[in-house]
Amino acid sequence: MKSNPKGEEVHWAKQNGPTDPLEALTRHLTLNNPPAEGPLFAYKKGTGHRPLTRQAFISKLKKTAKAVGYHSIHGHGIRIGSTLEYLLRGIPFDVMKVKGHWASDAFQSYLQKHNQILMPYMQAMPAEMALEFTRIAMPPVR
What is the pLDDT of residues 21-75, one digit of tens each? Predict the structure, then answer.
């Protein structure tokens, strides 16, 4: 989860179900009503608001995950998981590298570690996309 203290432009596309970003943002604005001159992702705390920090976000996520029976969650895993989600939706690797602020090809090593999990998704992809995905996620044996 990388951020720019000066802000940056964000793009998203409508999603079906609970992952829709517009629905999530609308819900946040309704529940927390952040001040106009404050951070967009401020949450209610007592009689005021606090900016949502990385630490607060990860802490809440870990508590929620534990409450529903999931094992520990780490911030870096969220970045990798969201990158994988976009890749499986057909977004090209070079676009995801820029979108995810990946300075290196490090995320490819994470994909290579999880190729057994990815195989059913890769088999369901159109052939040309699956070839590129396979080339990066499953390098040749040496």
Answer: 899 999 999 999 999 988 889 999 999 999 999 888 888 888 888 888 877 777 7
Residue 48, beta-bridge partner list? 45
Which residues in 72-91 are b (16+ Cβ under 10 Å) and which e? eeeeeeebbeebbebbeeee
DSSP 52-116: --HHHHHHHHHHHHHHTT-----HHHHHHHHHHHHHHTT--HHHHHHHTT-SSSHHHHHHHHTHH
pTM, two decimals, is 0.59
Instruction: Count CB neighbours of 34 within 10 A.
Output: 19
